[in-house]
Write a structure and sequence with these properties.
Layout lengths: L6 H11 L9 H12 L4 H12 L4 H14 L1
């Protein structure tokens, strides 16, 4: 549940991607969102995103590349 700052933007991006649901504080809507999240319906998309993030370079690799680019200037 997003609470502030960029969490709402991140939550919206995950909902658009299909690996999260947006709920509300209204009991029936919240119950439906929890059921959907627990149903497994989002699992494949969440796994795709996990793999995509796992393939990204590490922060150390990015820092090294940036350092190399700066030294080359």
């Amino acid at each position: 549940m997003p609470q502030g700052a960029d969490q709402f933007l991140n939550a919206d991006a995950l909902v658009r991607r299909g690996c999260a649901v947006r709920g509300s504080t209204e009991p029936d809507e919240l119950r439906a969102a929890v059921r959907r999240a627990l149903s497994g319906e989002l699992a494949a998309t969440a796994e795709d995103l996990r793999r995509e993030i796992g393939a990204l370079p590490t922060p150390a690799a990015v820092a090294a590349e940036l350092g190399a680019l700066l030294r080359a200037r």
